[in-house]
Structure of Heme-binding protein:
Amino acid sequence: MARYPTNGLSLDQANAITAAALAKGRELGLMPLTVVVLDAGGQVKSVQREDGASLLRPEIALGKAYGVLALGLGGRELARRAQAMQGFMNALSDLSGGRAVPVPGGVLVCDAGGVILGAVGISGDASAQDEVCAMAGIAAAGLSAETGDPA
């Protein structure tokens, strides 16, 4: 049987994260969500946009995931740095072509040893609620979430 590189997350893991994150959003009665899962190389593994999600939700979710992966820091830490180091975050935005969105809702996906396997970005409700759904999805896939706050 041929073996193929996954560059972190497999498609099965990405789909499990996405399904569980969306289910958590429905359980909580949140606004329609969009979930983006990136592998460790920053490539899209999964994108799902719920019916009724507004126009730019896929781009915002991608920006949340891309930003945390770009710096290797969870969205909460990126939000703190955006406040403290505006010049740096402006440069990050420029360097990334505007793709880095430094707010909660971007969560790193790690294995049990802390190795970054990818990232999840969710947009649709308040950022803190988006983050709750990302964490639920990551946990459902048997992986660890890094939000940027101490555990």
Observations:
- The chain has a mean pLDDT of 94.
- Residues 11-42+53-145 form a domain with the Beta-Lactamase fold (CATH 3.30.450.150).
- Residues 73 and 86 are 16 Å apart (CA to CA).
